[in-house]
């Protein structure tokens, strides 16, 4: 639970270590002197380190400081929600058309700034040929290299093999700046679950 710092007359210490508006060290002064200096430059005296002895106070525009802090906090929360992990499922013996379609989805997700978990699904005797899935994942890695990179290398997980792709920093920055995330989210989830069933039949 955040607590706002003491400001101006709320400061209880008799003397404070004063920091100027540009970060310059003024020194230890009586709180009355610090308040007078703040009034002289039309700024607030803000207690930034209350546990120090004496407490550290800084001359600043407190209203502007609160506004900028709120903006930074909002931006941080937005950035935390920015990365979404999409999932794309493939079969080891996927036919070329299905592969091209699914690769297109992966590229679209990466362009939108999202991570992609690529899952190779093995069935029956395919489980004895993990190299088929590995080669398919490596092929995909090479073909999307301009947009993303392998964040988590291919790993066997039961009947599946999983690899995680992440967009390059520049690609994600472009997506955020252009607002691409909101645009590509429309209808995107429907693409993913609709595909696996036809490919499962092709691989039988």
Give an overview of the whole structure.
The chain has helices at residues 31-40, 62-80, 96-111, 130-143, 169-178, 180-185, 188-194, 196-202, and strands at 15-19, 25-30, 44-49, 56-60, 85-90, 115-121, 148-157, 160-167. The strands form two sheets. A four-stranded mixed sheet has the order 2-1-4-3. A four-stranded mixed sheet has the order 5-6-8-7. It is α/β, with parallel strands linked by helices. It is 44% helix and 26% strand. It contains eight helices and eight strands, in the order ββαββαβαβαββαααα. The chain is rod-shaped, with a radius of gyration of 28 Å. Strand 5, helix 3 (96-111) and strand 6 form a beta-alpha-beta unit.
What share of residues is helical?
Answer: 40-55%
By DSSP (H or I, 4+ residues per run), the number of helices equals: 8
Number of strands: 8
| Global mean pLDDT | 84
Structural class: alpha/beta
Question: Uncertain segments of ≥5 residues (pLDDT<50)?
Answer: 183-204
Estimated share of beta-strand residues: 25-35%
